[in-house]
Design brief:
By secondary structure, this protein is of the alpha/beta class. It contains 13 helices and 10 strands.
């Protein structure tokens, strides 16, 4: 009985993957950066609207193949954001109950999306979502998915249409197929681990490529990258949802990263305004963080006379953030000055030089 359910579950997940076309790679040519095109891998077009769709599918496959999931067993995750939305989608696909453990302050937009896919939201009043998720899984005789531990190992980093392989395959017919930099954020660390490992695995084919990871305020990853002190902790989380962590997560692999960059939150959110004028659409906060890092690296290439593409991610769309990044009242409450950052980034785009 268990073996039969396992086969059906894997077939269901593989069928879902085959139904999903690859995500778009958008080319953006900025006149001030001749020979340095910017490519944006648009992960917002997944069925659940974000980069975490890939991770959620991988986590379910990993748990099933490890014998951790069986028919009817509840799935529990510590997440109030995109991972929970994507896991709720896959749990419904497999007929499994899903519970997302999250702070009571989580926005109604996120809660509504989790519930839309059949998930249940378990609210807590403190910040220990990890411990609360483990306890809830024990009470329900469920499986705690634990994205922060398993993200780096659940994905097949050697290929199998992971995000790294997808980027390089789509770049093959471009005038210059090897990016000089790929720029990603870190939340679990799974995406940077996958791309960094793939670059090294294929180093003979893609020897020019380097990986940069951007980190927002109120996150320990940048400091951990420099110090390797795994005990680092903060008392609050990041404003930029989905990235940055108040503790060093097990899935974050600093050794595969060539450079880390810290990005002020005001710059990340100002970059969303700028990107809206360039693309004609709204994106989520982590995409703004990516854009700031990408522009800095493009400006450095420009200053040194180097040429070649830079690739980054559209992690999710802006529709989930109408009450935060696109709400002037929220920005005022957070005491964020976007005008100065927007003016600075506009000069960078128009003149092709970095301004600190």
């Amino acid at each position: 009985m268990h073996a039969a359910w396992t086969r059906r579950a894997i077939q269901t997940l593989e069928a879902e993957a085959h139904r999903s076309a690859d995500t778009h790679l958008i080319r953006l040519d900025l006149p001030a950066f001749p020979g340095i095109p910017l490519y944006l891998k648009d992960e917002s077009v997944h069925p659940t609207g974000s980069l975490k769709h890939r991770l959620a599918r991988s986590l379910f496959l990993y748990a099933i193949c490890n014998g951790w999931l069986e028919e009817g067993r509840p799935v529990v995750e510590a997440s109030s954001g995109s991972t929970a939305i994507s896991e709720a989608y896959f749990a419904r696909l497999l007929g499994l109950p899903f519970f997302a453990v999250m702070p009571r302050s989580t926005s109604r937009d996120k809660v509504a999306q989790i519930e839309f896919f059949g998930g249940h939201c378990h609210f807590i009043d403190d910040t220990d979502v990890y411990g609360a998720a483990q306890r809830l899984a024990g009470e329900l005789n469920g499986h705690y998915m634990d994205q922060f531990t398993y993200a780096e190992r659940a994905t097949d980093w050697r290929g199998n249409n992971n995000i790294a392989e997808s980027i390089f395959r789509q770049m093959q017919r471009e005038p210059d197929p090897d990016p000089r930099w790929i720029v990603v954020p870190a939340g679990t660390g799974g995406t940077s681990a996958t791309i960094g490992r793939y670059i090294r695995y294929r180093c003979g084919e893609h020897g020019l490529v380097r990986l940069a990871v951007v980190d927002p305020e109120h996150s320990v990853f940048y400091d951990y990258y420099r110090s390797r002190d795994a005990s680092l902790q903060l008392s609050r989380g990041s404003r930029i949802e989905g990235i940055g962590r108040p503790r060093v997560e097990p899935s974050f692999m600093p050794g595969v990263i060539d450079r880390m960059m810290r990005v002020p939150d005001a710059a990340s959110i100002a970059a969303l305004r700028l990107l809206e004028t360039l693309l004609g659409r709204r994106c989520g906060g982590s995409t703004g963080t990516n854009l700031v890092g990408a522009l800095q690296l493009m400006a450095e290439l420009n200053a040194s006379g180097e040429r070649g593409p830079v690739v980054t991610l559209i992690c999710d769309g802006g529709d989930r953030y109408s009450d935060t990044y696109y709400d002037e009242a929220w920005i005022a409450r957070e005491n964020l000055d976007l005008s100065g950052e927007l003016a600075r980034l506009t000069v960078v785009v128009n003149e092709g030089r970095w301004i600190d």
